[in-house]
What does this fold into?
Amino acid sequence: MVKIGIIGAGRIGKVHAESISKYVKDAKVKAIADPFLNEETERWAKTLGIQHVYKDYHDILQDSDIAAVLICSSTDTHSSISLEAVKAGKHIFCEKPIDHDVEKIKSVMEAVKRSKVKYQVGFNRRFDHNFRAAQEAVLNGKIGTQHVIKITSRDPEAPPVSYVKVSGGIFLDMTIHDFDMVRYLSGSEVEEVYAIGSALVDPAIGEAGDIDTAIITMKLANGAMAVIDNCRRATYGYDQRAEVFGSKGSVAVTNDTASTATLSTEDGVVAEKPLYFFLERYMQAYANEIAAFVEAIVKDVPVPVNVVDGLEPVLIGLAAKKSLAENKPVKLAEIKSLFDL
It folds into this structure.
């Protein structure tokens, strides 16, 4: 039984704690830490059988009985806590992104290389049943030579401007998942990025220096092209679709809905809207990714989403930001050269 400590008891920390207790065998959450710990969180932890709750995450790192930690704290703490956890000899699952600063990500990479710890990054969509089925079709040669990858990713509502200001921008906060999906579905690397965008949902987002609607086109090393369209608000729900088109055909992923029922009458044809919230859409994916992390520890095999997988989408995001600012395509090699990669 792998004993786990969770650092950060916000929304995603609680999601992981609950999914582990319900769905993940061979793992148990022993402790959770959060500087804003309160009585409500303590009561919630007890309902899940979590033995210890702390305000200081160092109490988790110092517990020799805890083999692995989940870093679910604020983004600006991910890389520093990662380094401390490596030093403490803990296996690490870190929510995306490792950091917005590439040099800090490189520091984590070097620390992990020098250690014996497992390090997995939280790109949960790779563990969704729909996207996994699409990837398997591509891997098995069902669509032939890849030509075009299309990804649609739209949130049901825009985040508050206070969040936008500290998010790193849409490309490093929202689109980072889609950059990862392009790599995951294609099995190839992005070589060039061109991004356009605007603040169409909320002018205040533009005033904060960000955009809320974007289209990004990419050239891949395998010769295929990819297109991502993003928007911070889709009034009908959480819109998550993808298609890989190739020489033999295509594989497409549609939205999950509350049911597949379609009502057809003389007035028209009505179907369910997409699930509204990302936790509804991806709850099982969160459980699946932690199960894979625990399996890598138990069987001593590589994690399915490693530090490099955490770095590449950040580099693509920086290329997209540069492309938007300069209104021109940007090669990934140009971004990598800035960081001696």
